[in-house]
Design brief:
285 residues, alpha/beta, Rossmann fold, 7-stranded mixed β-sheet, 7 strands
């Protein structure tokens, strides 16, 4: 294959990444491997300092979630919507649970997570392909903790997801959900079309609270983290400075793609959505 056709295929992939959820995550995983040299988390950054790299900001967001759990040491943890599995691996290595399972609807992510975990020599972790709204592969009352970061807004039936959290958690088990919610406003036709293309199913805050309670889950901690996430995106100009690219044109394409993603995420968080964390538990019997 010529270098020109390779570049054309890669360029087409970047364009498709903006119009399909499956393509977006596939392209993001490929970009991490190409530019950074390893896979890392694929979620928004949370501000820690002005010198944050993209990876720093993503770790900050993960920590903003994990610190809401009680001590995870020796616990069984299920991450629903684990993506490429790197956040599940971070939870395992940094918090010493007895076991971590990463669950994702995308089979390619499950294969990738399994491969990365093997390359890193990790045990006490596995990955399962399943639907968050119907986790048939997961037995009742089998996990102490459930983590779900930046994934639930893709689920058409969040009620089913909340019921599955209740079913899978042990009595007294805890959960943390970080999700993107809808502000009480109207979006134009173009934005609604694009949201359907990207499988974005936003709920307003009042409905989220009501349906978590209806599923039998008790929320004990809730925070709107929109501001620190927006501030995290404010460090984006330095994210790729130290990395090398395969040629000037490839660099230009990747930087343009990255800036467009930052622009659309910032626009949504300012005009359309909020970013919220919910932490709580399933009542003990």
């Amino acid at each position: 294959m010529s270098s020109t056709s390779f570049a054309d295929r890669k360029t087409a992939g970047l364009v498709k990444g903006g119009f399909s959820l499956t393509n977006y995550h596939k392209i993001m995983n490929e970009l991490y491997e190409e530019v950074i040299g390893e896979h890392f988390m694929v979620h928004f950054p949370y501000f820690g300092s002005r010198t944050d790299s993209l990876i720093d900001g993503q770790i900050n967001l993960t920590e903003a979630c994990l610190r809401r759990f009680p001590d995870l040491k020796g616990k069984r943890v299920l991450e629903v919507g684990c993506g490429n599995g790197v956040q599940s691996m971070y939870t395992l290595t940094e918090y010493s649970p007895s076991w971590v399972t990463g669950l994702d609807f995308n089979g390619d992510n499950v294969v990738l997570g399994t491969r990365i975990a093997k390359q890193r020599g990790l045990s006490n972790i596995d990955f399962v392909e399943a639907d968050a709204q119907k986790m048939d592969a997961i037995p009742d009352a089998s996990y102490d903790c459930i983590l779900n970061v930046e994934s639930a807004f893709h689920y058409p039936d969040k009620n089913a997801f909340f019921r599955e959290i209740y079913r899978v958690l042990k009595p007294g088990g805890t959960f943390v959900i970080a999700d993107i919610l809808m502000k009480p406003n109207r979006r134009n036709v173009l934005l609604r079309w694009w949201e359907r293309r990207m499988s974005q199913n936003y709920w307003p805050l009042a409905r989220y609270r009501r349906q978590l309670a209806a599923a039998g889950l008790v929320v004990t901690d809730e925070e709107d983290i929109t501001d620190p996430v927006l501030k995290g995106f404010g460090t984006h100009k330095q994210w790729f400075r130290k990395y090398k690219f395969r040629g000037l044109i490839r660099r230009l394409l990747i930087m343009t793609f990255a800036r467009l993603q930052v622009f659309r995420h910032v626009y949504y968080l300012r005009k359309v959505c909020t970013y919220n964390i919910f932490a709580g538990h399933k009542p003990a019997e």
